[in-house]
Design brief:
The complex is a heterodimer of chains A (248) and B (311). By secondary structure, chain A is of the alpha/beta class. Chain A has a single domain, classed as HUPs (Rossmann fold), CATH 3.40.50. Chain A has 6 helices and 13 strands. In chain A, strands 9-8-7-10-6-1-4-5-11 form a 9-stranded mixed beta sheet, sandwiched between helices. A two-stranded antiparallel sheet of chain A has the order 2-3. Chain B has 311 residues and is α/β, with parallel strands linked by helices. Chain B folds into 2 domains: 166 residues, 3-Layer(aba) Sandwich (Rossmann fold); 112 residues, 3-Layer(aba) Sandwich (Rossmann fold), CATH 3.40.50.1220. In chain B, 25% of the residues lie in helices and 29% in strands. In chain B, helix 5 links the parallel strand 14 and strand 15. In chain B, helix 3 crosses helix 4 and helix 5 runs parallel beside helix 9. The chains are: A alpha/beta (248), B alpha/beta (311). The interface between A and B is large, with 82 and 89 residues. The complex binds flavin-adenine dinucleotide (FAD). Flavin-adenine dinucleotide sits at the interface of chains B and A. Chain A: It comes from Solimonas aquatica. Chain A: The electron transfer flavoprotein serves as a specific electron acceptor for other dehydrogenases. It transfers the electrons to the main respiratory chain via ETF-ubiquinone oxidoreductase (ETF dehydrogenase). Chain A: Heterodimer of an alpha and a beta subunit.
Chain lengths: 248, 311
C-alpha cells in the first residue's frame, strides 16, 4: 500500500516575522526556511506506518519553486522512497494545491494521504480536507493517533471538546496534529542517502490542473503591538495593581 | 444584498457558543442571515438559534446520520442548501468548522477564507497569517464566499431574536466511509476556555499534573478557565483541549495569567486579544514579559499559592 505525504517549504518557525514596510507581504528573502513542522510529523507517521508493515511505499510531494527540492530531500532523508516536485514559482492557494495533490494521489494509486493539519505560513488549515473532498474519500483531521489495519484506519483526533475517534475506510486523508509523534532527528547517513533517491518534477499543467480563482491579498500589516507593561516586585503589589484596574 | 448561511455547531442538544460569535461576523457583512442546523433531531438547537439577534431564519435538517458531526456527511448537505442563493457560508473557527468548511469549499470549487478577524465589506476581510504576526487584508474572488470566523475577534450577538424555524429535507446521498467511534470529552465545571472572562494557564514549569493543582486553585478563586502551553500538554500534565496558541485555542479573556510560560510566538498567537496579561516567571528575560501588562519575576511555586491566598 502506498502513502502520499505532502510537504511544504515555509519560513522556519523560529524566525521572527517581519512585515515589509510597504505592506506588500512579509520578508522571506534571506530568511531561514524549513519543512512545515506539521508536515515533518506527517512524514514521521508515514515512516512509522511503513516500519510497522502497514504501508510499503512513501511518496513525498511538494508544490513550489526549485527551492522546495530541499524540502523534498528532507522528506527523503526521513524515509520517503521517492519525491515529486510540482514546480510552480508563484503562490499556490489551497484549492489549487489540493487539485494538484488529488491528481497525484489518483495517478499514484495511493491509499493514504498524510499531510500536516496546517502550514505555519498561511495558517489556512484547508488542503487536506480539500483533497479528501475532491476525491470523495474519508478524512480524519488533527490526528493524534493513527492505527491502520485491513483497509481501515482508526484515528484519534484532537478536537475542542477533547479526543474524538473515527474509523475510516481507505483510501483516506489524515492530517497530523502536534502530538501524533515526535519526528526523528535526521542523521547524516540518511541525508546522504536521500541525495540519491529519485526526485521527479512535474507541473500543474502536466497534472491537468488550472489554478482556481484566487483570494487577493491587498495589504499585509503587523499586528497591533502590545506595549510592555509594568513589573511588580511582590504578590501584594500585583494584587493591588489588578484591583486598581478593576480586574479583580 | 448578501444572503448568509451560518453553519451551527452543537452537541447534546446545545448550541455551541461559537455560533453567536459567528453571527456577529455575519452581522458585520450585513444582509439576510440564516442558521443551518444539521442534527438527528434539531428542534432544541433550532429553538436556541432562533433566539439569537439578527437571525432571519433557522433551517433544520433532521437525519439520524447527523447524530455526530462528521464533516464528510455534513458537507454534501451544506452544499445542497448553499445552492439556494447564498452568497456566504460562515463556519465557526473551531475544530468543527475548520474540519468541515474546506470540504464544502472544495465541493463548491471556491477558495476558502480562514479565520476572518475583521470585515471590511461583503468580500473583504482581515485574516491572520504566520501565527498572527502578519495580518492580511484579503479580497475573496467572485462567487460564494466560504469562510471560518476567528471567534476571539468578535463579540457574541445578543439574545432576543425570534426567527422562524423551517425544516428542510435533503436529497444528497451521504458517504458510508466514515464512522464515529467515541468522544472522550473533558468534563469540567470551570468556565469554557473560549468564552471565559478570566483564564489562568500553566506551562512546562509546572513539572507535573499534580503541581497543576495550584493553577486550578487560583483559577477557582477568581472563577477562571484553565489553559496551558503546548509544552505542558505534550508533557502530559493536562489534556490537549487546554492548549492555548497558534494551533490550540485562540482566546480573548479580560484577564490572562501566564504562569511558568516563556512566551513563544506560537503561544502568544493564542492570547493576542487578551485585554490584560499577567506573567509570573522566574526568568526576568522571558519573552512573555515583552507583552505582559503586569509581570512578576518570581518562583511560581511560592508566588501562585500566595496569590491565591490573598484573593
Ligand atoms: C508548529 C508549532 C506549533 C506550536 N503551537 C503551539 C501552541 O499552540 N501553543 C503553545 O503554547 N505552544 C506552541 N508551540 C510550542 C512553542 O514553540 C513553545 O515550545 C511552547 O509554547 C513552550 O511552552 P512553555 O512556555 O510552557 O515552556 P518553556 O518555553 O520551556 O518555558 C517555561 C518557562 O517557565 C519558566 N519557569 C521555570 N521554572 C519556573 C518556576 N519555578 N517559577 C516560574 N517560572 C518558571 C522558565 O523561565 C520559562 O520561561 C508550537 C510550536 C510549533 C513548532
Amino acid at each position: 500500500m502506498k502513502a502520499l505525504v505532502s510537504v511544504k517549504r515555509v519560513v522556519d518557525y523560529n524566525v521572527r516575522i517581519q512585515v515589509k514596510s510597504d505592506g506588500s507581504g512579509v520578508v522571506t528573502d534571506g530568511v531561514k526556511h524549513s519543512m512545515n513542522p506539521f508536515d515533518e510529523i506527517a512524514m514521521e507517521e508515514a515512516v512509522r506506518l511503513r516500519e510497522k508493515g502497514k504501508i510499503t511505499e512513501i511518496v513525498a510531494v511538494s508544490i513550489g519553486s526549485e527551492k522546495s527540492e530541499e524540502t523534498l530531500r528532507t522528506a527523503l532523508a526521513f524515509g520517503a522512497d521517492r519525491a515529486i516536485l510540482i514546480k510552480e514559482a508563484g503562490e499556490v492557494q489551497p484549492l489549487t494545491a489540493a487539485k494538484a495533490l488529488a491528481a497525484v494521489f489518483k495517478k499514484e494509486g495511493a491509499q493514504l494521504f498524510i499531510a500536516g493539519k496546517q502550514a505555519i505560513d498561511d495558517d489556512a488549515n484547508q488542503t487536506g480536507q480539500m483533497v479528501a473532498s475532491l476525491l470523495d474519500i474519508a478524512q480524519a483531521t488533527f490526528a493524534s493517533r493513527v492505527d491502520v489495519d485491513g483497509g481501515k484506519a482508526v484515528v484519534t483526533r484532537e478536537v475542542d471538546a477533547g479526543l474524538e475517534t473515527l474509523e475510516v475506510d481507505l483510501p483516506a486523508v489524515i492530517t497530523a496534529d502536534l502530538r501524533l509523534n515526535e519526528p526523528r532527528y535526521l542523521k547524516l547517513p540518511d541525508i546522504m542517502k536521500a541525495k540519491k533517491k529519485p526526485l521527479d518534477t512535474t507541473t500543474l499543467g502536466d497534472l491537468g490542473v488550472t489554478a482556481a480563482a484566487g483570494i487577493k491579498t491587498t495589504k499585509t500589516s503587523p499586528p497591533p503591538s502590545r506595549s510592555k507593561g509594568i513589573v511588580v516586585k511582590t504578590v501584594d503589589e500585583l494584587v493591588a495593581a489588578l484591583k486598581a484596574k478593576g480586574l479583580l | 444584498m448578501s444572503k448568509i448561511l451560518v453553519i451551527a455547531e452543537h452537541a447534546e442538544g446545545k448550541l455551541n457558543a461559537s455560533v453567536s460569535k459567528t453571527l456577529a461576523a455575519a452581522a458585520k457583512i450585513g444582509g439576510e442571515v440564516d442558521v443551518l442546523v444539521l442534527a438527528a433531531d434539531g428542534a432544541a438547537v433550532a429553538a436556541q438559534a432562533a433566539q439569537l439577534a439578527g437571525v432571519t431564519k433557522v433551517l433544520v435538517v433532521n437525519n439520524a446520520a447527523n447524530t455526530q458531526a462528521l464533516a464528510a456527511l455534513l458537507a454534501p448537505q451544506i452544499v445542497e442548501v448553499a445552492k439556494s442563493g447564498y452568497t456566504h457560508l460562515l463556519f465557526p473557527g473551531t475544530t468543527f468548522g475548520k474540519d468541515l468548511a474546506p470540504r464544502v469549499a472544495a465541493k463548491l470549487d471556491v477558495q476558502q477564507v480562514s479565520d476572518i478577524m475583521a470585515v471590511h465589506g461583503a468580500s473583504s476581510f482581515d485574516r491572520p497569517t504566520y501565527a498572527g504576526n502578519a495580518i492580511t487584508t484579503v479580497e475573496a474572488p467572485a462567487g460564494i464566499v466560504v469562510a471560518t470566523v476567528r471567534l476571539a475577534s468578535f463579540t457574541a450577538v445578543a439574545q432576543g431574536g425570534s426567527a422562524a424555524v423551517e425544516t428542510l429535507s435533503i436529497s444528497a446521498t451521504l458517504p458510508g466511509h466514515t464512522r464515529f467511534v467515541k468522544l472522550e470529552a473533558q468534563k469540567s465545571e470551570r468556565p469554557d476556555l473560549q468564552s471565559a472572562a478570566r483564564v489562568v494557564s500553566g506551562g512546562r514549569a509546572m513539572g507535573s499534573s499534580d503541581n497543576f493543582k495550584i493553577i486550578y486553585e487560583l483559577a477557582d478563586k477568581i472563577g477562571a478557565g484553565v489553559g496551558a502551553s503546548r509544552a505542558a500538554v505534550d508533557s502530559g500534565y493536562v489534556p490537549n483541549d487546554m492548549q492555548v496558541g497558534q494551533t490550540g485555542k485562540i482566546i480573548a479573556p479580560e484577564l490572562y495569567f501566564a504562569i511558568g510560560i516563556s512566551g513563544a510566538i506560537q503561544h502568544l498567537a493564542g492570547i493576542k486579544d487578551a485585554r490584560t496579561i499577567v506573567a509570573i516567571n522566574k526568568d526576568a528575560e522571558a519573552p512573555i514579559f515583552e507583552v505582559a501588562d503586569f509581570g512578576l519575576v518570581a518562583d511560581l511555586f511560592t508566588a501562585v499559592p500566595e496569590l491565591s491566598s490573598k484573593l
